[in-house]
């Protein structure tokens, strides 16, 4: 049975690139915001949702994490890592210089990723934040010739724009992680050509703020020689000083190490929730 895949749209976003790298032939639907996409999975409007999770330069997409924790709890069934290459795009008729660009549109992360280029070449332009790079390209395609968008070549093709300047991002090793969410907790497996490592993500809440609490949590993983690729704290939204921790473990869930960790942490008074155990897919794009 063909599944319906939702993603942060419109067409031309990096999320769409991530979706196309994993799913072929499935019906696809775009959503204007991350919450809308996650809500669509929860309401069974779509079977799978793909949303940005973290960027190597700008860090965690907090809206995704907070919405997944506080509003709609869905299992992570896969992760897709996409290299991010940002280009300056204008309408086809534009044949002027950077000085003639008066407006620049893009997502806040994309703007931040191109800070040095904007500072040196487009300091005179007004910067406008959009919900996605794809939306920025769409807006520029419908605006006058003084506007430019920052985005990928897929967006340029989708909206009939030309790339005025390629690779304007400040750092070359820029990647974004995308979470694949579904009510069906079974991970995407099989012989996918992009398949790589396995990962398990946990949410851990400490009982109270006491000396050495975090050290004890990390020790439960350390003495078992379990490698953590990320640990991040986020506010519980129940008052100052109340946090939960998101921890990524670079191995799949098993019936030996993980139950031992959970039992040890629960003995300390922690609450542990498994957000997903899943494969990590890494793609390569030339554009």
From TrEMBL:
It is an enzyme of class 4 (lyase). Residues 4-183 form the Prephenate dehydratase domain. The gene is pheA. PANTHER family: PREPHENATE DEHYDRATASE P PROTEIN, PREPHENATE DEHYDRATASE-RELATED. The record marks 176 as: Essential for prephenate dehydratase activity. It comes from the Bacteria. It comes from Sediminibacillus albus. SUPFAM superfamilies: ACT-like (SSF55021), Periplasmic binding protein-like II (SSF53850). This is Prephenate dehydratase.
């Amino acid at each position: 049975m063909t599944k319906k895949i939702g993603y942060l749209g419109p067409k031309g976003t990096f999320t769409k690139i991530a979706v196309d790298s994993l799913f072929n032939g499935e019906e696809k639907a775009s959503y204007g915001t991350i919450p809308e996409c996650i809500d669509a999975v929860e309401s069974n409007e779509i079977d799978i949702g793909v949303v940005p999770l973290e960027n190597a330069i700008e860090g965690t997409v907090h809206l995704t994490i907070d919405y997944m924790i506080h509003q709609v709890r869905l299992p992570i069934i896969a992760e897709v890592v996409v290299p991010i290459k940002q280009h300056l795009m204008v309408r086809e008729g534009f044949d002027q210089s950077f000085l003639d660009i008066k407006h620049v549109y893009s997502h806040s992360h994309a703007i931040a990723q191109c800070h040095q280029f904007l500072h040196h070449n487009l300091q005179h332009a007004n910067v406008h934040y959009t919900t996605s790079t794809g939306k920025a390209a769409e807006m520029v395609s419908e605006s006058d010739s003084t506007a430019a968008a920052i985005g990928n070549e897929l967006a340029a093709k989708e909206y009939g724009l030309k790339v005025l300047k390629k690779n304007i991002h400040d750092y070359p090793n820029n990647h974004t992680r995308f979470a694949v969410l579904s009510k069906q907790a079974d991970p995407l497996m099989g012989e996918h050509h992009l398949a790589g490592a396995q990962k398990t993500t946990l949410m851990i809440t400490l009982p109270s703020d006491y000396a050495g609490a975090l050290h004890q949590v990390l020790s439960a993983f350390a003495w078992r020689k379990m490698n953590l690729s990320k640990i991040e704290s986020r506010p519980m939204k129940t008052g100052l000083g109340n946090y939960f921790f998101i921890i990524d473990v670079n191995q799949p869930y098993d019936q030996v190490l993980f139950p031992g960790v959970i039992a040890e942490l629960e003995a300390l008074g922690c609450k542990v929730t498994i957000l997903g155990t899943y494969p990590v897919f890494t793609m390569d794009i030339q554009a």
